[in-house]
Structures are given as C-alpha cells and as structure tokens.
Fold these 2 entries.
Entry 1:
Amino acid sequence: MIKRLSLLLLLVGLFLINPHCANVEQNQNIIKSVRVKEVPFKDLRSSIWKKAPVTRVNVIPQNMTLPSLQTPTIQYINVRSLHNDNWIAFLLEWEDKTRDATVDVNKFTDQVAVQLPLDPKSLPAFMMGNKGGRVHIIHWKAIWQDDIEKGYRDVQTLHPNYWVDLYFFSEPMIYAEGEFPLQPTTVDYFITPEALNYIPGAYARNPISIFHRTQPVEEAIAEGFGTFTTQPKQNAIGWGRWEKGVWKVIIAKQIVSDDPNDAPVPEKTYIAFAAWNGSDKNVGARKHYAPWVELVVER
Amino acid sequence: MSVTSWLTSKVKNWQIRREMGYPYEESRPEKQIAYVFDINKCIACQTCTVACKTTWTSGKGQEIMFWNNVETKPYGGYPIKWDLNILKSLDGQSWDKEGKYNGKTVFEAAPPGERVLGWLPEEEDYSYPNIGEDECAGIVEKGAFFSGIHKAWMFYLARICNHCTYPACLAACPRKAIYKRKEDGIVLIDQSRCRGYRECVRACPYKRTFFNLVTRISEKCIGCYPLIEKGEQPRCVQTCIGKIRLQGFLSKPDSPQKDNPLDFLVYVKKVALPLYPQFGLEPNVYYIPPIHVPKEFLYQMFGPGVDKAIETYKGAKDDKELLGAFLLFGSTDKIIRSFKVEGDYALGFNDKGEMIAKVPFKEPVYIRPYFDKKVGTYRHNIP
C-alpha cells in the first residue's frame, strides 16, 4: 500500500515539475498578485516582474463543446501578477515555436485570454460562465498587437503585390504625374459611408473589424458558450512580444472600475485562462484552457 | 461531446427521402427563396458573376470573393476542388431504388470534435476563379466532328449560395451568427455578430461562405434581399442574358402549388434537381441537368432523379404548360408567384395577382419593306 502511494506521489510530483521552467515556485493552485509601486504595463523584460512568483498553469484542449480541439500544442502558461492598488496586471508566458500574427482563410493568429468571475462568491462555470453567472474576459491577439505597432494588417501585408484596378469610393485617389492612381493599400483610404459599404464588417461596426485599435486587447462579458459579447466600455490594457519561441503577454485591468461589466478584484478571487496556437489553426472553441485558479491579491 | 448527441433533432429532408440528424428543429420559412438554373442554356458569359461582384463584393478584402461564379465541369471549380474534396471524404453515397439516400449526410458523418464534415480551403484555392475553363472531359476522337455526336463533354455550372433549408454554415457557427430568415428563407451572416472563426467556411460543402481578410469576418451571398423585399429577382437572375435563371419561392414540400412556377418545375414536373442532395442540406438552387453528359456523372451530382428530369426536359416541346414555365425565365425583373398558359402566351403574375410577364410561345415576325417611304431611305440589314 505504502509502495503504491509512494509511486502515485512520485508520478504527481513529476507531473507538476515543469522541465522547461526550473524556477517555478508554485503549483497551479494559486496565483499571488504582488503589490508594487509601479506596474510595468508594457515592459516585458522589467526586473519588477521578478518580484512576482511564477505559477505554472497547465492548459488542456477544449473538449466540452463542439468544435473541440483534438490535439494540444500548448502545455502550460506561466503566470505572474503584480498590482499597484489601482491596476492588476498579469504576465503570461507560453511556448510557441511560430509567431502567427496574420489572418486569411487558412491563417490564424496566436491569442491568449484571461477570465474573471463577476461574482467570485458564486463561481460560474469556468468555460465562459453560465446563464446568470457572468464572466469578464480580456482577450489579447497577436494580430492586434501588430495592428498597433506596425499598422493595420491588410491585404498587402500578406500579398504585397496585390493590385486592384478600382475600389469603389476609396479616396483620395492620388495621381502622381504619369502614373497610375495610387493603389489604396490601407484601410485609411476608405472613409465615407459609401466606401465603408463595401467593407461590411466595418460598416456594421463589428468589434473584430476595427481599423484603429488603441489596445491589443478586447474586453468582453459572457455567460456560456457562444455568448462572448464585446463590452461597450473598453478599459483594459495589454502588450505582447514573441521572442525565441516564447510569447510574453501582459494583460492588465483596473482593480476598482466603474464599469458594471468588469469583474471586481477582491483579495481573493479566481482566474481562468485560454490560449490559441495560430499555426495549428486554433480559433474560437478550438482552444486550450485552464479552469479556475485561485487569485490572491496581496494588499 | 459526441456528434450524435449534438444532432438533437430529427428533421425531414425531402430530397433524400428520409429523416436526418440536425442540431436544430425543423423550422421551414413561410416561403423559401429558390432558383431554377437551366444548365443547358448557360454559355458562361459570366454576366451574373460580374453583376454580383460589382454590386456586392468590390471592396477591400473581397478581392478573391465571388458569391456567384460559373465554372466549367468536370474540371473547373471555385474554390479549387470544392466538390472533389467533400465527395472524397463523404464515403458511400448510395441511393436505393425508391430514391432514398442510404449514405451519411455531412452532419451525420462529422468526425470526432467537429460539428460538420468539412474542410478548410487554402488561400491559393481561391486564386483561380475560372480554372479549367472550357476544358472538355476528354479528347475528341479523330474525325468525330464529321461523323455525328462526339463523346467529349463539358458543361457550365453556375453557382450561388443555395440558401439551404438545413444550412451547414448555420449549424457550424458556434456563435449563432448565421440565421435563416423566417419570411423568405434567405441565409445571412450577421455582420455585427460574426467573429471570423471560419467554422462556416469549413462546414459549407458548397464553399459559399467566404472570409474577408480586411474585416476578418465571413461573408456570403445575401440573396439580394433588398431586391427580394421589393418583389424583384436578384441581380444574377435579372442580368442573365441567356435567361437560364428563374427565382421565386418554393412552397413547403408537402403542399406544392401547381401554378407556382418553382413548385411546378421542382415538385410537380421534377425537371429541376438539387445540387449534391446527398450532403443533406436541402439546397434550394435547382438545376435542370445537362442532357449530353454521362449519366453516372449526373447521378452523383444531382441524385437519382436525373433520368426522369432529362426525359421531361426533352419532352417540353410537347408539354405546353412546361414550355410556358420555361418561357418565363428572364421575362421580367419581378418575382413571378404564379403562372398560367393562355392560348399562345405564358403569363406570369406577382403576389397580388397582377400580370407582370406575357411571353408568346412563338415570337411574331414582322417584315418591313426594304425602302422606308416615310423617311425616304433604305433599311439595311444591320442592327
């Protein structure tokens, strides 16, 4: 009996030890947010982050609804958290061999998301909440990061030599002497409602079709599968960088917010995670997830 | 979650003559938008394609998007191999003698983890919208030109969204961003709700939903609903110079109205057939099959009704009512809700019973004198 128990403990121990991250200090049962004076919201290399302990959060393929993810390509996310009484930030790190930051019919972008309950005392379902049990989701995408840093990822980003004779109502049609009119290579040439009529997602003000993003994150609320709804007020911030096969992404939100759709951050709450690998065509429900993890905010 | 537990409803699919599993209950619209395309008359002039393109998909991000296309069969296809890929994965498509489909639909054949059996095209698959244009199925034998009918064949297949009764795009969308309108059965993607997961692109076996890489969401044929709401036929139908198309509304399969030209051609005469009915979507673009193409090819494409459809089509010259219905193709921009043959005219009526089309069975011939005395000039035999 003791032998069997020892073997079991050994196996559990092996599972919890992450071979890729020797300095993991905690298991995935708890994330501690450390109080600091200044939170480095955009500085992914800041030494201040080292003040926060790393929690390895294992993620598994989504298998609760269809479509599901059959084969995982992400095993875990290393999570650190800092706060300054006004803002709480999470530094998420995970291995991804490819940087996927464009989209086309068969191209998908890398993504990560955190989720907090609107009512931590009555914890909703960890997979996007449940009816009456709302969750607050903050979603970061690599393509949004590039939209902000490099300009809107457009047709010419993927296909530089793309040429179209005419886009209706695009402006200004600039004629250089003796040359063809300037090809409207960016969405900025489409300003009028008539021009936007041919870009229906933008015309309909779809939150996915925003050409001038200010943050690479989107805030949403949800209460079950398929209910992801963009919040009217966007007040979360984020920043991400891919280096040598590792994504590092900061997602931050206000601790006290006047937005009723934002989750509160008491001393003890919960947080869940999701991650998508673009090169493996992860999108939507084809994702990796981690159920609720306890989040303790040190005051 | 298994596929079988997800297909919670048993719905009636009249095209495969059996019930099938679907994630939502049977909910047929008040009237179903439907089209009849006479393949025998199509010359692939692409006027429909251009009319659709200039009307709806000239924007940035829609460059490779054709809601309407005309491809040459057997080798053409847009996106490339749209039909071969799904036919290959949907194994065992057999029909019994009574016309009941014994194989699996794309819903019933969904692999583990998927809502629908589908596949996601590559970008390159959209790069050649008219690949295989005018290519015959084989080489014409030497001398065959002079000895009668040769065996080489091809035909043009005009394709739009089928506004299916059981859309795979709708079934696959995890956000329920795709809906089928109760008033006319048009299937639409809510442009404010879609998040660009491309599940619909993957699921639609006809590949009639498209991804817009500028808006980063999906789009599809909207059945020209602004025209439909005004009582007019869609752009692709109005502009068809070959008059191969007729758009109207199909009644429910258990209550066909003989004076409705769509019901008459589809339910009564059974001369127009659905495209790949075995997929199980109950598509609502009905094709009069090409009469010169090998039957095996047509059986696979249009199901077991091919022989009767071709026989009926060939007999149209002796069937005044059927010929009358055919004459109404391209006769008006308005939607014909009922028709009748009166004397030597085919008459079409709108939903108020007002006559909107009057087509003679035989065009009257007028011969004008060579010299026009009124203006004192000769008439030349030029347009």
Note: The two ends of chain A are 44 Å apart (CA to CA).
Entry 2:
Amino acid sequence: MDLLSNLALGFSVALQGINLLYAFFGVLLGTLIGVLPGIGPVATIAMLLPVTFTLPPVSALIMLAGIYYGAQYGGSTTAILVNLPGESSSVVTTLDGYQMARRGRAGAALGIAAIGSFIAGTFATFLIALAAPPLAEVALKFGPAEYFSLMVLGLIAATVLAHGSLLKAIAMVVLGLLLGLVGTDVNSGVARFNFAIPELSDGIGFVTVAMGMFGIAEIVANLDSEEKREVFTAKISRLLPTARDFKDSAGAITRGTLLGSALGILPGGGALLAAFAAYTLEKKVARDASQFGKGDIRGVAGPESANNAGAQTSFIPLLTLGIPSNAVKALMIGAMMIQGIAPGPQVMTEKPDLFWGMIASMWVGNLMLVILNLPLIGLWIKLLTVPYRLLYPAILLFCCIGVYSINNSAFDIFMMAGFAVLGYVCMKLSCEPAPLILGFILGPMMEENLRRALLLSRGDPMTFLQKPISATLLAISALLLLVVVAPVVRKKREEAFQE
Amino acid sequence: MKIKNAKDFWAGLMFLAFGVGFVVVARNYSMGTAVRMGPAYFPAVLGGILALLGAVIFLRSFIIHPEKVGRFHLKPLLIVLVAIVLFALALKPLGLVIATVIVVAVGAFASHEFTPKATIVLAAILAVFAVVVFYYGLGLPFNIWPAALG
C-alpha cells in the first residue's frame, strides 16, 4: 500500500518535536489573527516570510499552512460571538451562528463548528493523500503550453470568484501580471520598467506588494470606519453540543465536507466559495428551512465543515502543479522559493518527506485546533475586546520590520508605502486586491511558459488549441467566463455575495 | 454625458493610465517576434489589454447603475505613510528602538481615539518586544541604538 507507507512517512515527519512545535505555533497564531479584526492570514504570512528563511523547509511550510487553516477557525469564533466574520470565509457563519449565540447557544455553535471542521479536515487530508500522486503524474507530462493554459484557467477562475465587477477583477489580474514583470528579463538580461532605480532591477518583492496592499491599506481602511464592536459576553455554559445537535447536523457536516472538498480543488476556489455553496445547499435540502437565519445549527455545521474542507483541498493545485489558487497559496509558493524549492509536481518525488510531512501535519494541526480551542475560547473572547487603536500600531511596526528584513533595504519600505496607496485607492474603487497578487506571482511564470511554448511551435499560437490538455483547460476558462457573463448566473452571483 | 458610476469612472482611468504607461515604457525595449520574444513583447501585449479593459470600464461608467466613491480619508492615510517613511529613514542611523518608538507614536495619531498615555506605554512595550523577538530571537541584523553611540 503506497498510500499507507506515504502517510506513515508523513506522520513520522509531522510528529517530530520541532514540527509539532511549529504546527502548534502556526495554528495558535492563525487562530489569533483570525479572531483579531483588521489582520488576516495574507498579511500575517507575508510578515512571517522573512522569518521562515531561518527554519528548515518542512517546519516553515507546516507553520504557514497552520496559520491558514487556524485563521479559518478563529474567523468562525468571531462570526459566532460578535457577528463579525474574522475571515471572509466565515461570513456565512454569522447568519446562524450569531443567532445561536444570542439564544444562549454560543457553546453549541462553537462546538459544532470545531467538530465539523475537524471531520472535514480529516476527510480532506485523506483526499489530498489519495488525489495528489495521480495528479502530480499527469502534471509531469505538462509542457509549457499546458502550463500556460493552466495559469490562464487559474487566473480566470480567481476573477470569476472575486467580489464585484468581473471586468475590474480581470483588469486587476492584468495589472498584477504587469507589475510582476518589473525587473530584469531572464532571457535577454534587459532591466525592464526599472526607471534607472537599481533596487528595481531585481523586481518588486511580492512581500512588499502583499503587505502594502493587504497589511497597510487595510489599516487605513479600518481607521476610516471605526465601528464599535459589541462582544457577546454572555457566559458560555457548555461547549459540547447535545446529542440532538449531533443528530441534526450529521447530514450537514457530511454534505459540507463533500461539497467543500470538491470546490476547494478548483483553481481560484477554496474556503469562501465552499462556505457559500454549503449554506445554500443546506437551505435547499432541509425539510424545514424556516429556522435558517434564526439560529439553525445546520447553518453553522454545513458551511463550517465546507470552508475547512475547501481550505485543505485548495492545497492540491499548489502541491501537484505549483499553481497558487489564492493569495495565501501564492505566498506559500514564495516561501518555497525562498527555501530554494521549485514548486511543482517534482516536489512529491524529490522531497517526499516535505510533501507528505506537510499533508500529515494538516491533520495534526486540525486535531490541535479542536483540543486547543475549546478550552481557549475564553481567552479568545478576551482578545476580542482589545481596541483597534492599540492593535494597528503593532501591525504597522511588524509590516515595516518584515519588509525591511528581506533585503535589509529601506527602499522596500518606501515601495510598501506606495503599494499601500494603490491598495487603498483600489479598495475605494471596489477593485479587489487578491486577483492582483495572484497575477503578480504568475506574471513571470506565464511569460516564461508562453515564450517556450511559442518557441517550440515556431511562433504558431494554435499550439495552445492543438494540444488536448491545453485546449481543454482553455475551453474550461472560456466556459467559466461565458457562464458568469450570462445574465442569469450573474444575478445569482450578486445575490450570493450580498447575502 | 453624465458620470453615473464614479467608482468605475476612476477605476477605468487608472487602468487605462497603467496600461498606456506600460506600453509606452515597453517601447524602449526590443519587441522581437512571436518565436523569439523580446523583453517588450509580453508587457506590451498585456499593457494593451489593460488599456482596453480600462477604456471599457471607463466608458461603461456612463451607463451602468450609479455608485459613489466612498469618502477618501486622506488624514489617516497620510499619517500612516509618514510613520512608515520615518521608520525607514530612522532605522539605520538611529537604531531599532528609536525607529519603533517613532512609527508607533506617529502612527497612533491616525486614530481618532488617540491618547498620549496609552501610546507611550504601547511604544515602550513594542520596542522591547521588537528587540527581544527580532534582534535576539531571530537574529536579524539591526542596530539597536544609534550608530553614532555604538
């Protein structure tokens, strides 16, 4: 049994003391920033990237992954207790979770969210272990044309799922691609778009972009809309849901897990889409849907399982193809590159300990989240009362130190300030920054593969349509675009995001 | 013609400007051919696409549903930017401790709930934290105190 021996290898890595420690640190930090308003996993991972340089690669990736799914978890805690989603993927949880809390059932809501997430996480971990090797094998056959088309699909999928205007999301992707091209062109050695500034000939660091657009710009946006947070301080009497709760939500957890796992695999998919879809599904299949929005436990169990499953399976495209499906994954690719690992299908064969260790650590991390967080909920509630005015100067400082320490260069801090302005302007104009970051990471990769593909085909662009895999990927991209532009779906999509 | 959607009006202009800008700068580099692309090829094509998208978004803003741009809060933005820039300038000559105090103290002005006492305490705590974690813990190469003193 290959699967079992692979998982055994993975667990032997994940259970090493140092990796357990970093997994623990990751999920704890993830939960913390998930709970805290105004700072998300993207900014946190960006801040920690320079630090990961000093760690062994496995530990670094285990910690970063832990931050990502820990944040999902912390996000749902605030969604239930304060009616504020800590992360976008827990928006749906506010609908029924907060209502449950208002009825004095906060404990049950938190409990079922944790248990549902754990079940979903377990399933998704095994799914990754099962699906990754065959996918990586397919990916090894990929040539430059296939890679190019795959990236097109990934970018299109990311724009389709962005909030708001599709056109603006596509424009943000293209802008990101262009910004990614700044710096020395690898083929000709010509320094492009550097305006004779020596620091720019190495390109713009993506940590700089991410921190400016997510970290700093978000601080400014939060400062101009200081809302008062009302913490739900009612005593949480029992955390364990009752037997009846379990019976009610078993179906929802199962459906959420399956749906979330499937949607997470899509490039550009992941936790947010999974949660929305699961909530809609629960409402559809429920015999009595009248309690939804008023504190139905299924409205918590379904989406919470789905977003965790989706968060896990969205690692599949990253691990097998080296293609990031969202901003967090893009940063993890950055972390791999810092460690000198080229992300892609070869990681599994060349570094099996890293690959399987990371997968096993996800399960370990999920277990930690359940064990840790149930007793720690009191602490998280306390943290919610930390006023933002004490929080944001610290974030500001960490962003500055983080960006500076990559190259020990003050210029990078100035660049970050520039991207903060761009990020703030984009927010005001309802242009999502996430597609830009994705484009930024993929820009150089796309150019490289486009060049190689056209070199091989002697300049004939039909090569993208003549190769079956590439043609299929492009067809799916076109279909996705068509589907979104079609008026019926467009209306549905707007509704889904407004809910 | 009246602008209906101000957000798209400005967003369209911004994308148009970026697109045109990239195309114009790319003209300094060689285009090459599709078989052997020069450094200008891909950015010029993308810049063209971006300019086109920007133009469409711009023109559409005259016909689609109206939307106003939310108030642009210049004060917090400027204060935060000044804090960041001062940190960058202070870090090497003045050291981590003073730079931290500067970024925290200046940055704190951006909030309308600013209180001097809380800010001083916060700056002190963060300065200690930064030195312990980043200098001793992670071994990042900072000056802690002004270079002139060391």
Note: Chain A touches chain B through 63 residues (CB under 8 Å).
